[in-house]
Automatic annotation (TrEMBL):
<keyword id="KW-0694">RNA-binding</keyword>
<dbReference type="GO" id="GO:0004812">
    <property type="term" value="F:aminoacyl-tRNA ligase activity"/>
</dbReference>
<keyword id="KW-0648">Protein biosynthesis</keyword>
<keyword id="KW-0547">Nucleotide-binding</keyword>
<keyword id="KW-0436">Ligase</keyword>
<protein>
    <recommendedName>
        <fullName>alanine--tRNA ligase</fullName>
        <ecNumber>6.1.1.7</ecNumber>
    </recommendedName>
</protein>
<keyword id="KW-0820">tRNA-binding</keyword>
<comment type="similarity">
    <text>Belongs to the class-II aminoacyl-tRNA synthetase family.</text>
</comment>
<keyword id="KW-0030">Aminoacyl-tRNA synthetase</keyword>
<keyword id="KW-0067">ATP-binding</keyword>
<feature type="domain" description="Alanyl-transfer RNA synthetases family profile">
    <location>
        <begin position="3"/>
        <end position="509"/>
    </location>
</feature>
Length: 509
């Protein structure tokens, strides 16, 4: 019998409850009080201060399923979403934690049992495990202990692979708790040995579960300091697990997404989702299906957790794109489509996360407001661009709902007189980079101004800029790496007046 997504989630939680883990609810996707993060990007975020020794652990062992969003910062998957089978903007991370209780051996043993025994029953011949291969420059030893643990569990040696810092040293962001990790990967294609394809962005050989041994904190100056205690922090991608257990190699073919696709097909009366990617998806229809379903999930979850587009450029970007894609499938009726999708998202997730159902009204209202604004900007400004900007009042009056970036961008555009009837690549790049205006909106603005814009060339420039930024980041990381020193830190134990943790424990996990 095939387990439903809800049963799969429940079994994970029940398994860890049966091994003395306390169930702890997902925190909201808005971090409690962490200026280093815009969205919660992993299950461990809500325990950050426990790892740092600033708070008492909520229990010795914990388990949960955490709502996560990865559209910015160190973990940014926005650009690949819709184009591959296994990254989403919003996803659920199943996790278990040891707060100074068990360590490597128990963590690996419990994980292996869970996934290879019924009801999950993943075949060992389709699994690989990775471990940290060390880093000479940093003076970090290879984690042979973990390698040997996997051997003792019975994993065949050709399926136990070492990787470096990038793959097997997990960090939540530029700062924060971190450590070497060991991961479990799954080969959708079959049982043939293909170790060279692990961690190579293959859509049929993907990472499933990351088990991190939190031992360090990355400080603001880039140094690693040792934590007083050692912790286990694991995260398994729920949508990836569901796809595997449904016998599908794409997350989008599982019952988490098919109801959403059904809704799109029904409302738009268009061709059904066929699961094509890249060049095989000639018109980009399947990609649009995926983006729309993914983004509707992200927007619904974020707004239900009290994140609003006017406060979050990231959310606004995603919501606008949702409307734009919806409008391309069902011209003039994007709100109807997105609202229907959001309702379908709620009914699929509310049993696990009641707040998503309870705040449905809020989600509808915010989507409606944001839609109105989007329409105003992209269509009514078309009619009356000059009065809007020149009167200087209209947009400022909307200042609390229009992003300051857009107002500034409109002014920037207003200043330019487009000598050759086109918006130069430089100006477009400024609009994109400084003011956060997407290329399609730049195109719309250009149309309004009766000017043209060379979309291809602008996109190329954006690509170049992104890789230059990435390189700069890598260079500075390399520089930091060269300077890392691992020094012991002395941390104060929590005192009586340390803030009490606000975890909500619940029995209905
Ligand atoms: P990947 O290498 O596939 O991008 P990751 O190494 O960035 O994954 P981790 O930070 O180790 O991911 O997070 C733990 C688990 O969460 C992963 O093993 C994966 O199953 C899942 N996961 C990570 N990012 C996403 C995403 N964008 N969408 C869905 N699941 C994800
Ligand atoms: Mg990733
Ligand atoms: Mg990875
Ligand atoms: Mg990983």
């Amino acid at each position: 019998r095939i387990l439903s997504a809800n049963e799969i989630r429940r079994h994970f939680i029940d398994y860890f409850k049966s091994t003395d883990h306390n169930y702890i609810r997902s925190s909201p996707v808005r971090p409690f009080s962490d200026p280093t993060l815009e969205f919660v990007n992993a299950g461990m975020n809500q325990f950050k201060n426990v790892f740092l020794g600033l708070r008492k652990p909520p229990a010795l062992r914990a388990t949960n399923s955490q709502k996560c969003i990865r559209i910015g910062g160190k973990h940014n998957d926005l650009d690949v979403v819709g184009h591959d089978t296994y990254h989403h903007t919003f996803f659920e991370m199943l996790g278990n934690w040891s707060f100074g209780n068990y360590f490597k051996k128990e963590a690996c043993e419990m994980a292996w049992k869970l996934i290879t025994l019924p009801p999950y029953s993943l075949p060992a011949e389709k699994l690989y495990v990775t471990y940290f291969g060390g880093d000479a420059k940093l003076g970090l030893e290879p984690d042979l202990e973990t390698r040997d643990i996997w051997r003792s569990i019975g994993v065949s040696p050709e399926r136990i692979l070492p990787f470096g810092l990038k793959e097997n040293f997990w960090e939540m962001g530029l700062t924060g708790p971190c450590g070497p990790c060991t991961e479990i990967h799954y080969d959708h294609a079959g049982t043939a040995l293909r170790p060279h394809l692990v961690n190579k962005d293959q859509s049929d050989l993907t990472e499933l579960w990351n088990i991190v041994f939190i031992q360090y904190n990355r400080e603001e100056d880039g140094n690693l300091t040792s934590l007083q205690q050692h912790f286990v922090d694991t995260g398994m991608g729920f949508e990836r697990l569901v796809a595997i257990l449904h016998g599908k190699s794409s997350n989008y073919d599982s019952d988490l997404f098919s109801p959403l696709f059904g809704e799109i097909e029904k409302i738009c009366k268009i061709q059904a989702y066929r699961g094509k990617f890249g060049a095989e998806d000639e018109l980009g229809l399947d990609t649009n299906y995926r983006i729309l379903a993914d983004h509707a999930r992200m927007a619904t979850v974020a707004i239900a957790d009290n994140i609003f587009p006017y406060q979050s450029n990231g959310l606004r970007r995603v919501v606008r794109k949702t409307f734009r894609v919806a409008d391309s499938l069902l011209p003039g009726k994007s709100l109807k489509l997105v609202t229907a999708l959001s309702k379908a998202v709620r009914s699929s997730l509310e049993s696990a996360y009641p707040e998503i159902g309870n705040n449905g009204k809020q989600v509808d209202c915010v989507l409606q407001d944001e839609h109105q604004l989007w329409m105003q900007i992209s269509s009514s400004t078309k009619k009356d661009w000059n009065s809007l900007v020149m009167k200087d009042g209209n947009l400022e009056k909307l200042a609390d709902v229009v992003s300051p970036g857009l107002i500034a961008a409109l002014k920037e555009l207003e200043k330019s007189n487009f000598p050759d009837g086109r918006i130069s690549d430089d100006l477009a790049l400024t609009l994109y980079d400084r003011y956060g205006i997407d290329v399609p909106l730049i195109e719309e603005l250009a149309t309004i101004k009766g000017a043209s814009v060379d979309v291809r060339s602008v996109e190329k420039r954006i690509g170049e800029m992104k890789s230059a930024n990435k390189k700069a980041l890598n260079d500075s990381a390399a520089l930091l790496t060269a300077q890392y020193s691992i020094r012991d830190s002395v941390r104060l134990p929590p005192t009586d007046d340390s803030p009490k943790y606000e975890y909500v424990r619940s029995e209905n996990g």
